[in-house]
Amino acid sequence: MDGMDGMALGATRQDVISLTRHARHRSARRNVAPNAVEYVLAHGRMVRRTGVRFYFLGRRDIPACDRCASWATRLEGVIVVVASDGGVITVYRNRHGLRAIERKMKYRLFERNACADDTAAHVDECEAPLPLSARASA
Questions:
Q1: 77-124: per-residue pLDDT in tens?
Q2: Of 52, 69, 56, nearest to 95 (Cα)?
Q3: pTM for the whole thing?
Q4: Which of 50, 65, 80, 120 is the most interior residue, by most CB within 10 Å?
Q5: Is residue 64 in a domain?
């Protein structure tokens, strides 16, 4: 591999993947290495739902040259959830997860309310809901 190929590869994908503390913890508990997360992000299919991106690595998403490798077959069904800022939120395994992801709503409902206008008239309407313990005492 000459220097030009390496530069083209580095220019097309993220060099550093930002994992949240939760994502690091969950990927460690679920035995998914950080380089496996990179592999899923590079080869998995991306679905946008609920304001985040889901990267799902199915059997057909694994390149033909990697299908015989045991490490690649173990990655089948891994799902990486990526926030809008590019940080990895969590990592989990579900071989039938694409079906569940596609059933999710496309957008989060609480972001599409009338609270975008920060006028004083809307302040009472746009307050965050109280936790259950505070509701009982109110």
A1: 999 999 989 999 999 999 888 888 877 777 666 655 444 444 444 444
A2: 56
A3: 0.65
A4: 80
A5: yes
pLDDT in tens, 27-67: 999 999 999 999 999 999 999 988 899 999 999 999 999 98
Report d(CA 54, CA 111) in Å as an integer: 19
* Kind and range of the H or E run holding 5: helix 3-12
Which helix (H) or strand (E) is 4 found in, with range?
helix 3-12
Q: Which of 44, 21, 40, 42 is nearest to 32 (CA)?
A: 40
Q: Which residues of 11-37 are buried (b: 16+ CB within 10 A; e: fewer)?
A: eeeeeebebeeebeebbeeeebeeebb
Query: Do 89 and 129 touch, CB atoms closer than 8 A?
Result: no
Residue 2 in any domain: the answer is no
| Cα–Cα distance, 110 to 114 (Å, whole number) | 9
Give a yes or no: residue 126 inside a domain.
Answer: no
117 assigned to some structural domain: no
Domain count, the chain: 1
> One-letter amino acid identity for 70?
S
Does residue 26 sit in helix, strand or coil? helix
